[in-house]
Amino acid sequence: MSINWLLLGGHQAQKREVITEEKLQSQEVVEECYCLNGHSILTDKAEFQGKPGLTLKLKVSTEEGLLVISPFIGDHDRTFIDFNKHVGEIVEICCPTCSEPFPVYNVCPCGAHLVALFTSPKAQFSQCIGICQRLGCLHSELLSERDLRLYSRQSYF
Ligand SMILES: [Zn+2]
Ligand SMILES: [Zn+2]
After folding, report:
1. Where are the chain's structural domains?
2. Which residues lie below 8 Å from residue 95, measured CB to CB, with a gap of 6+?
3. Tell me, what's the pLDDT at 149?
4. How many CA atoms lie within 13 A of 6 on its CB side?
5. Which pLDDT score is estimated for 4?
6. Is the pTM of the predicted complex or chain greater than 0.90?
7. What is the rounded distance in angstroms from the CA atom of residue 67 to the CA atom of residue 56?
8. Distance, CA 139 to ligand 2 centroid (Å)?
């Protein structure tokens, strides 16, 4: 196991975990994901093994398009729709329904910003998935409350 567990200072019930491809073996799926205004971003614009993907509106100065990412934690599979991907470009990541940008909560190791996709309709930073604004950067994080996390890590193998 090479999962990096980092405790966020001052929040003892909170975990911040860098998502690695190893996580994919646990077959954890994002079942809920919301923007700041409570819109669900799980849609059938693209499906991954029959599960709805996380749909994001991408904006740069010259164009707008959609990115759908796999809901399987650790899976880097993603589909761009009507968007010319320029690797390395920094994009604004917005809700596909209300176009509200997802809020920045941290800096990515690549130097761009991480934005929070909320896994609870309460839109708390303690429960979110962090993804990088830089196209081609696959760094992502899972922030969760410890009790929830311990529960969901139960394994039957
Ligand atoms: Zn929205
Ligand atoms: Zn990055």
Report:
1. 27-152
2. 35, 36, 37, 39, 41, 56, 57, 101, 102
3. 44
4. 10
5. 42
6. no
7. 5
8. 5
Query: How far, in Å, from the CA of 154 to the mean position of ligand 2?
Result: 30
The predicted structure's pLDDT at residue 81: 97
Q: What angle do CA 57, 116, 42 make, to 5 degrees?
A: 50
Query: Taking Cα atoms as reference points, which of 102, 91, 107 lies closest to residue 54?
Result: 102
Tokens of 115: 């934005």
Contact 93, 56 (CB under 8 A): yes
Please tell me whether residue 152 adopts helix, strand or coil conformation.
Answer: helix
CA of 131 to the centre of ligand 2 (A): 8
Residue 115: exposure state from Cβ atoms within 10 A (0-12, 13-18, ≥19): buried
Cα(95) to ligand 1 centroid in Å equals 5
107-144 pLDDT tens trace = 999 999 999 999 999 999 999 999 999 999 999 999 98
**What six digits make up the tokens of 92?**
């604004």
Look-up of token digits 């073996």: 25
| Phi, psi at 105, each rounded to 5° | -125, -10
Q: How far is 78 from 119, CA to CA, in rounded Å?
A: 19
